[in-house]
UniProtKB/TrEMBL annotation, chains A, B, C, D:
GO cellular component terms, semicolon-separated: cytosol
The protein's Enzyme Commission number: 4.2.3.5
InterPro entries cross-referenced by the UniProt entry: Chorismate_synth, Chorismate_synth_AroC_sf
Pfam families for this protein: Chorismate_synt (PF01264)
Protein name: chorismate synthase
A single BP term in Gene Ontology: aromatic amino acid family biosynthetic process
Entries under PANTHER family matching the protein: CHORISMATE SYNTHASE
Protein's UniProt keywords contain Cell inner membrane: no
Pathway(s) the chain acts in: Metabolic intermediate biosynthesis; chorismate biosynthesis; chorismate from D-erythrose 4-phosphate and phosphoenolpyruvate: step 7/7
Molecular functions (GO terms): chorismate synthase activity; FMN binding
Organism: Hibiscus syriacus
Length: 286, 286, 286, 286
């Protein structure tokens, strides 16, 4: 397409819409991960951070990782992407055990969202937890999804589970505990969102198995090709990315709603209007 | 729902989302028409204005109404909502002829959009003209939709039809003519959008007609009840409202895209960030 | 993907879903046009047929083409795809006039649907005419859409416009006239659907034009490359295809609704259950 | 609306579409539960059955309920809707403990789908497990969702987790185990679907709690009104209904696809064409 604006061709309107012509170039300069980082470095400072919290029998205990402070550096300090060094070693050992056996193991990934705006999504038809659940359940090998207190929350009573409100030193309404996982009634409340995902072991194993063909003949199969001993660390950026995609959509919707048609800004807390320009940059995960 | 924020109830998040609790009250204070007017009075100043351009055989000639200046006052100065006083009288006379006969007549409504942002909608799957077409074709009694040069444009050649670009005194890229109707390649270009809609005469007539029942029996029917001699003036706010609904959605999407993730603001012209608060007010169509 | 069904891989479920693995092969064997023809040759016998009804000033008069009998053979008997031989010659002559000038002309395409099932689509939010309108308005170069009596219907009175019902010799409820264009209240009534589409002349012309660049510099452009003197005959299969896509979706929805959950088959007329297998075949437009 | 078909009114097309006029009457005669039962009694015989599998600390062990044979009668034989009489008593006792305390407890519901057709939903964008996850996560008080081997499956290795295929005595391809939960690669494989849902305890408790008002004042609240000691049995029909809604949509889509446009019926197993008429009946849950 020409950088000339030819009469009655859409050269001009494409520029007005996208500010760029070459989709190819755009994708090269703006990988999804960059979107994620830019998202994080916006004035809102929303961060989407995932880490490996389980490899087979090695389960990171609840509370060992501080969600207020856990950083990308801590997570990326080891090959299994677990922010706790001691448990990271145990996980690496667990993978080593099965590495040569061709018998893969599964595990779990925890994903948190810090500094998300309040008011994202809606109370009945498209709850934020339902959208996040669908997004995450769309990744391969997932068998379960929980957020906030999750399955463990079923062992609490109402008194133990309720998150009491208070007004913090900045005059913002907060909850003292966060069993709601940052979402109440389908809408974000500004607390840290946390969710946990179960990955089954992958299906390609190094062992003869009985299979059936399309023609219903039974035969034996010994799979060749790559075997992943544990996909957890590789699933992690997928979880981060799909959670960020859900949130970016809602961030844009929220910005449109609250900045163009605000009703009660004292309650709604519109996003800061000083979001930085989304510039291509050399930010890549190590 | 309480104005107290009960623990682990969504009282707080509803406020964070909507800034208001009583949906009923909200609807009373914010009629769709008010949305339309507020939309117009935003700093962007987008205006959606419709007028009756045809009643049966009385057709307002193209160009008689100046789309740069036509105002709500002109349109509302007579009962048929036609901004040209001479044609308004002819239209009223045409309706008078059929008023007592119980033989309704149809006509046409023209709708324009002034000061819409550039860059609304997309080039392939959900073109702005396609969305507007679907929206307008969803109103009752519509048999046709055209925008820009419309059906009449088929009688022009390419040389006659092309809209040449120029740079205006404010440094903005404009077109000298506007046969594109403010939309090129599915995306708004900032020129005035104009579209025209055909209304059939309504089906309820004061005359015996042969009908069939559900049981396939033929019988005669003489309809009773209200007869509209001409629905054009009453269709007009429906056309305005549905066009505004399409545009408000796109305005919010554009605001989210260009203000949160701008790529090239020189080309994209992000909306002004000083949109006024959307306050309930006593603005009603006379 | 293997024709073996490997344990816990989705080989088997893909076959259960699609009955085929190679998407590439599928697309080669099943061009959209074939879908269209298969659609026509089903036991329902729904046919989607488009023809050129206008080239610039040459306008096929209403009623000259008999929609009950017009055939693909008649349409394909000449290069402009107009079923009336006399008007086809006039259209070819009109194109010849501009062919060497590099000044393209537009026109109109009429599309009819014969033997569509009754009951397609819904009365309020996704009317059949609204869906067809959006689909057709998504094609390039379209400036207008009308169906049934269309813009011309605005010159009729209610008495002239109404379609009276009767019961035909097969006991089916029909209308004597068809100004509704086969759709009433958003839902198909089994009569022939007819719609007409306006194409503007294409924008690429062989003449120097003033243009503006992205940097807002004014300059002259003389376009090189292909010039279409008239795109009408080439738009025709696009109109047919997009109308068929809308209808195939609704045909499947209708089949699911009326055959799985019938309420009153006497009124609803479920589709025949003896639809033929959708086999790849060598049917191609000449 | 008249049972007469008035000219150019949509009386006739509404009947052709719906076979019924009175939406009110329709809803009365066809409660959602009836849809569910009719769904079950179709020739396909798809059954959606949910039961309470956890009340607070009382957790029904995996495998205690036989999903091949568990029946509605077994589930409805006690007030907590648990098909195992011994565990039902324990659950009732657990609820009795908290009934008068005003300190509610949560738990879990298991839902299975028997005899669903093969081939429902799609491999990438709208996987069946993702749709079911979103649907179920839209119910109130849900904190987690798992299907097939679920979170427990993360403790297995690939060899332990894989479901081997075989051809059964009817020549149908089956899996010997069902850790996939009836869904592989986003598509149903005809085995029993099973999913489990975590319900948090409800938030209304009989105890003074610190709350915050909209004006950010801290105060004490003692909730009055109804207190549910345990919502599990009442959530159960909601889980059944929303799972059935997802499946009915896909059943209709599958019927449209495979019966109208079959590609390879040997692999796809089109639904039987002899689905019974969906008649209102007096089937109600006891």
């Amino acid at each position: 397409m020409s950088i000339a604006y030819r009469p009655s061709h859409p050269d001009a309107t494409y520029d007005m819409k996208y500010g760029i012509r070459s989709v190819q170039k755009q994708l090269e300069e703006w990988p999804l991960e960059l979107l994620l980082r830019k998202f994080s470095s916006s004035s809102q400072g929303t961060e989407v951070i995932a880490y490996v919290s389980q490899v087979h029998q090695v389960v990171l205990p609840d509370g060992l990782v501080d969600h207020d402070t856990v950083s990308l550096d801590q997570i990326e300090s080891n090959i299994v992407m677990c922010p706790d060094p001691e448990y990271a070693e145990k996980m690496i050992a667990a993978i080593d055990v099965v590495r040569t056996r061709g018998d893969p193991i599964g595990g779990g990934v925890t994903c948190i969202v810090r500094n998300a705006p309040r008011g994202l999504r809606s109370p009945v038809f498209d709850k934020l937890e339902a959208d996040l659940g669908k997004a995450v359940m769309s990744l391969p090998a997932i068998k379960g999804f929980e957020f906030g207190s999750g399955f463990a929350g079923t062992f609490l009573t109402g008194r133990e589970h309720n998150d009491e409100f208070y007004t913090d030193e900045h005059g913002r309404i907060r909850t003292r505990t966060n069993r709601s996982g940052g979402i109440q009634g389908g809408i974000s409340n500004g607390e840290i969102m946390n969710m946990r995902v179960a990955f089954k072991p992958t299906a390609t194993i190094s062992k003869k198995q009985l299979i059936v063909t399309r023609e219903k003949k039974e035969m034996e199969l010994l799979a060749s090709g790559r075997h992943d001993p544990c996909v957890d660390p590789r699933e992690l950026p997928m979880v981060e990315a799909i959670v960020a995609l859900v949130l970016v959509d809602q961030l844009m919707a929220q910005h449109g709603q609250c900045n163009l048609f605000p009703i009660n800004p004292d309650l709604q807390e519109p996003l800061g209007s000083n979001f930085p320009k989304f510039e291509p940059a050399n930010i890549h995960r190590k």
